[in-house]
Write a structure and sequence with these properties.
It is built from seven helices and two strands; from the N terminus they run H-H-H-E-H-E-H-H-H. The protein is mostly helical and 157 residues long. It starts with a helix and ends with a helix.
Length: 157
């Protein structure tokens, strides 16, 4: 079976690595070969695992790209080597690990740009928004926040 051949090839390659003990331990703790019935099942597993890296090796890899929602970096096709992405192809190797690709993205230039959030509420919208916020404050057990919102609604601010 193909999956067994892949497993054997990986183990043989790991034995030749200079850092084979580290690689063996990583494979033991986190490595897996998963046999799927079809590409939809494969994509579903990828999206659940949210891996750091995904290498898509199918006839038309771009066809699957929009379906892969949770991965740090997606490598498409046989010439898109991970090492190219790490060093010269525009991606980098500072990517979400441990399944955090579900909610996190690879490091990018925008991560070094300072941004500030700004809140400006017009007077005519305060009452409705304050009432909603007061409800949250009460349920979060933040009585002083609720009191400040109530005071604002009464015009006591």
């Amino acid at each position: 079976v193909f999956a067994e051949r892949v497993d054997r090839a990986i183990r043989a390659r790991v034995r030749r690595l200079a850092k084979d003990a580290v690689a063996r331990e990583a494979l033991r703790r986190r490595g897996a070969t998963i046999v799927v019935a079809d590409l939809a099942q494969a994509v579903g597993i990828v999206n659940r695992l949210a891996p750091e890296l995904v290498s898509v090796q199918v006839e038309d890899p771009r066809r699957l790209l929009d379906s892969i929602e949770n991965a740090g970096v997606v490598f498409l096709g046989p010439w898109s080597a991970v090492a190219l992405g790490d060093f010269v192809a525009g991606a980098n190797h500072v990517v979400p690990t441990g399944g955090s690709a579900r909610y996190s993205s690879p490091l990018r230039v925008a991560d070094f740009v300072h941004r500030t959030s700004v809140v400006e509420v017009p007077a005519h919208q305060y009452g409705r928004l304050a009432l909603a916020a007061e409800t949250f404050a009460i349920h979060q057990d933040l009585p002083e926040d609720a009191a400040s919102l109530r005071a604002g609604r009464r015009g006591a601010v």
